[in-house]
Design a protein that fits this description.
Blueprint: H1 3-39, H2 44-60, H3 67-72, H4 81-105, H5 111-133, H6 141-144, H7 147-179, H8 188-210, H9 219-227, H10 229-249, H11 255-296, H12 316-332, H13 334-346, H14 360-377, H15 382-391, H16 398-402, H17 412-431, H18 438-452, H19 461-528, H20 540-571, H21 574-596, H22 598-604, H23 611-642, H24 650-675, H25 682-687, H26 689-709, H27 714-744
Helix pairs in contact: 1-2, 1-4, 1-11, 1-12, 1-13, 1-17, 1-18, 1-19, 2-11, 2-12, 4-5, 4-11, 4-19, 5-19, 7-17, 7-18, 8-10, 8-11, 8-17, 11-17, 14-19, 17-18, 20-21, 20-23, 20-24, 21-23, 23-27, 24-26, 24-27, 26-27
Subcellular location: Membrane
Keywords: Membrane, Phosphate transport, Transmembrane, Transmembrane helix, Transport
Protein name: Phosphate transporter
Length: about 750
Amino acid sequence: MGENIYLFMIIALAVLAITDLIVGVSNDAVNFLNSAIGSKAISFKTIMLVASVGIAFGAVSSSGMMEVARKGIFNPSEFVFAEIMIVFMAVMITDILLLDFFNTLGMPTSTTVSIVFELLGAAVAISLVKIYSGDGNFTHLSNYINTDKATEIIIGILLSVVIAFTIGAIVQFLTRVLISFKFNDKPKWVGAIFGGMAITAIIYFILIKGLKGTSIISPEASMFIGENPELFLLGNFILWFTLSWLATTFMKWNIYTIIIILGTFALAMAFAGNDLVNFIGVPLAAYESFLSWSDSGQLASEYNMKGLAVAVQTPTYLLLASGVIMVVTLWFSSKAKNVVKTSVDLSRQDEGDERFEPNYLSRQIVKFSIKASDNLNGLIPVSLQNRINTQFVKPTSYAQKAKAKDQPAFDLIRASVNLMVASVLISLATSLKLPLSTTYVTFMVAMGTSLADRAWGSESAVYRVAGVLNVIGGWFFTAIVAFVAAAIIAYIIHLGGIWAISALLIFAFVLIGKNYLSHTKKLKETKEEEILERAESSSIQGVIEESAKNIANVVKRANKIYSNSINGLAKQDLNSLHKNKKQGAKLANEIEDLRNHTFYFIKNLEEAHIGASNFYINAMGHLTDISQSLEYIGKVSHKHVNNNHKKLKYNQIKELKQIDIKLAEILDNTYHAFEERSFEKIGNILNNKQELYDLVSQKISLQVERTRSEESSPKNTTLYFTILLETKDLMTATMNLLELYYKEHDADVAPATLD
């Protein structure tokens, strides 16, 4: 291969590096944003500004090249330039595809683990090619691969997951027992001690993980910290305890908010300073290899890459440019917010919308944990149990729970512990030169603290455990897929050269573009399709006024779902019916969520407005009946076409369209009545309901005659009767809902709402 192909590869790697920075930040934002966002200690804009400054500072003060990209996984002296370039190209293509896949799912994964296993996979593939062509055997692989380092990394991953979860749970439990949920009522010295410990841990983390090896901290200072860590920590604790006490006593600052701001900055800085090389380390190593080979005058297939073993400092302008890309991505990436949401939802203090469905393993873990907890409680004196339990009593405010999306997912204490423990564990591992993933540590600490904080109650435990298992399973999936995919891509490039590289690059960018468009479309649909809002009113008139928008939303979507079912059957459009079925299920889930809110709604009510609860419960019942009929129609329609049963006959389709048109007219009028709050129009709709009932009954009679005389398909008959009967149920539920609103609405009464 000539020099042109390597120049092309360098340009391609530069583009891949920029792309990798974007998808990498979207994934790793969860590391430093989840505690601040979850606690809502400061505004989202302030969180982003603090994180941006941290990223920019960390990028510029980055400790240089990631040695693992150059010599940590493979022995560079065993490879020539042509082979090394194949390895680097395979790694970068695999990396952007893998990270983008996880970002699209909204699942946090480790950029460190992905890059390590991609390097391992690609290097193994090329090593096997060399061994095979040289008539060697498989045992020679250890000459090419740094197996000790690879084993160390794998063990480090497993240990970091268990240790982070355990330490997070223990520290949070002890903190809560000592400080409780009423931390604002504690004496100032309690907060000062906690602040002194937390800020000391975070500062130590900044110095050890963020600034070690940079020009900002001198070698003498670094050596002193390394040789006298106990003295350094003690001095820091005294300093920060004093400053914390002065700040809270005289300046009335909230020490926990300060900890969260400082911790967010520290983790963002450490991320940029250390994980930045996960994205640009490989392209830079490739660029230096290219320059070294170009100056040598040797053939690419002969030039030995032992020069990669020498450490090289990364140019500052490249670090600065990378930092700018990372900051811009942080502000504008909707996928980053999606990944953060997964972590925050799984550690949320109160029940709410659960994203993950429980599975067999999560149920068994919860059952075992309950039994173990019961057995353990039997060993602890009842008086001690009662004292501990009083520290875990949460301030109860059902009115706040009703507006759960506006409330913090957890309090300032837990957010502070998350940041403090993650900082300690990461800096400790760094000082001991142990490999770990910052994503794994920060995520598992957050899960451990939420468990210790009793956030995983009987209402939510199976969902949360299932979520954690999904994320952890995704991490192992990352390692396996990264290894296999990089190995396959490396071998494809080895066989196909520049044509294979071009095809793989086109495939990668088309796939990323497709994922981006799909994600954008989904976000747009979510915004357009207004989510049903929970009622906060305390009177019947208040609920009527407030829920009118919800009813209009449901009716509009019901009209669309019903019409799409009929049109999909008419055209035998399986894709349309599949989407329609999902829309029906989505509407049913949203209404189910409103029903789950009934407890909090009733808790809000005063004695004088108790009738509002009956109204709300009845309205929810009618909405549930509507959604169940729509969901069932969508499901049977999709199933019929999906199973390749006979098409409905022309007359059957024609009759269903007649019903659809009449139903659409009623639902459209209903939509406008609720959208415009013109509740007096409901009377006209109710007066015309018999017309549709008669139409449906007439079609049922016609189908009975057809079945007796000419119908030959049992499946068709079953489907047709099912749709007609469910349409009747749909109409009954809709009319019952309209009658409820028409009967209870009183224009002369001003709606009462919660203060």
